[in-house]
């Protein structure tokens, strides 16, 4: 983390984005206290929300993990945490919209939810945010893409730039995923090298090729506020905003 900040702040920024109002809505964060690897307290969530409001966001759709054996969250657990957050915002007279969905891990539990037509926390017009394993390609990946589309969902792949086994095969592999009807949500932090050079390279390539549908912060804790602030100096973030291809502000 220290080396990351040294590399970011030692370089001379060419731009300074004053506001992210053209993005407007963040669709990926972990701001429900103490149910996954995100914020530990509501107060920490409030601190992040206030910063995000100050840089131009008008709404956050926060997305705690749902992962079998890791974060066994249910819609009821997530909604309960969401209501507590909303109550605190109201009690503090903070006027800011926070909705809730989930970031689903592509595992047996997720496949069962789809197959059995059980409730999946989505947002907008049946948008479902999901992630893959970081270690190896799921054998059921293409089947899941198909099943989500048949079930009437609009699948959004979280941070595609961060899966080495896809990136190692090159851009053609990503194009196959896009051709399967999958929308791409890159992480803003990738644009400043937070997850390493490979993730940054592919996030930039997606922007160059106009493959990005959504951008998310994927912010987990107050310590990452500084990373989000560093993103305001990203030329590629400015390029993405100027492309007018993002769908965030339609939500």
Please explain how this structure is put together:
With 251 residues, the chain is an alpha/beta fold. It has a single domain (2-250), classed as TIM Barrel (Alpha-Beta Barrel), CATH 3.20.20.140. The chain has ten helices and nine strands. It has helices at 2-10, 42-54, 75-91, 108-115, 141-150, 164-167, 171-179, 197-208, 225-231, 235-243, and strands at 25-26, 59-62, 65-66, 97-100, 103-105, 127-131, 154-158, 183-187, 214-216. The strands form two sheets. A six-stranded parallel beta sheet has the order 3-5-6-7-8-9. Strands 1-2-4 form a three-stranded parallel beta sheet. Helix 4 links the parallel strand 5 (103-105) and strand 6 (127-131). The longest helix has 17 residues, at 75-91. It is globular. The protein starts with a helix and ends in an 8-residue tail after the last helix. The relative contact order is 0.17.
Number of domains: 1
Radius of gyration of CA atoms, rounded to a whole number: 17 Å
The main pleated sheet reads as: 6 strands, parallel
CATH topology: TIM Barrel
Question: Could you spell the SSE succession in H and E letters?
Answer: HEHEEHEEHEHEHHEHEHH
Q: For the terminal residues, how far apart are their CA atoms? A: 33 Å
Beta fraction: 5-15%
- Count of helical regions: 10
CATH architecture assignment? Alpha-Beta Barrel
Mean pLDDT: 94
**CATH class label:** Alpha Beta
Layout: helices, strands, pairs:
Blueprint (H helix, E strand, L loop, with lengths): L1 H9 L14 E2 L15 H13 L4 E4 L2 E2 L8 H17 L5 E4 L2 E3 L2 H8 L11 E5 L9 H10 L3 E5 L5 H4 L3 H9 L3 E5 L9 H12 L5 E3 L8 H7 L3 H9 L8
Parallel strand pairs: 1-2, 2-4, 3-5, 5-6, 6-7, 7-8, 8-9
């Amino acid at each position: 983390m220290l080396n990351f900040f040294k590399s970011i702040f030692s370089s001379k920024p060419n731009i300074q984005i004053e506001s992210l109002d053209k993005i407007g809505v963040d669709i990926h964060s972990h701001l429900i206290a103490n149910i996954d690897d995100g914020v530990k307290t509501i107060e920490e969530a409030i601190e992040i929300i206030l910063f995000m409001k100050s840089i131009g966001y008008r709404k956050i759709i926060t997305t705690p993990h749902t992962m079998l054996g890791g974060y066994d969250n249910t819609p009821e657990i997530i909604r309960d945490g969401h209501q507590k957050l909303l109550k605190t915002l109201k009690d503090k007279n903070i006027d800011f919209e926070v909705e809730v969905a989930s970031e689903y891990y592509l595992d047996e539990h997720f496949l069962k939810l789809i197959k059995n037509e059980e409730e999946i926390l989505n947002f907008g017009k049946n948008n479902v945010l999901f992630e893959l394993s970081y270690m190896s390609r799921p054998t059921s990946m293409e089947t899941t893409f198909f099943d989500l589309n048949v079930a009437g969902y609009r699948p959004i792949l979280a941070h595609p730039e961060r899966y080495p086994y896809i990136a190692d095969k090159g851009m053609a592999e990503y194009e196959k995923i896009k051709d399967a009807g999958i929308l791409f949500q890159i992480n803003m932090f990738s644009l400043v090298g937070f997850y390493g050079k490979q993730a940054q390279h592919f996030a930039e390539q997606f922007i160059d090729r106009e493959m990005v549908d959504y951008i998310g912060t994927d912010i987990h804790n107050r310590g990452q506020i500084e990373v989000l602030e560093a993103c305001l100096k990203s030329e590629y973030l400015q390029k993405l905003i100027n492309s007018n291809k993002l769908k965030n502000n339609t939500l």
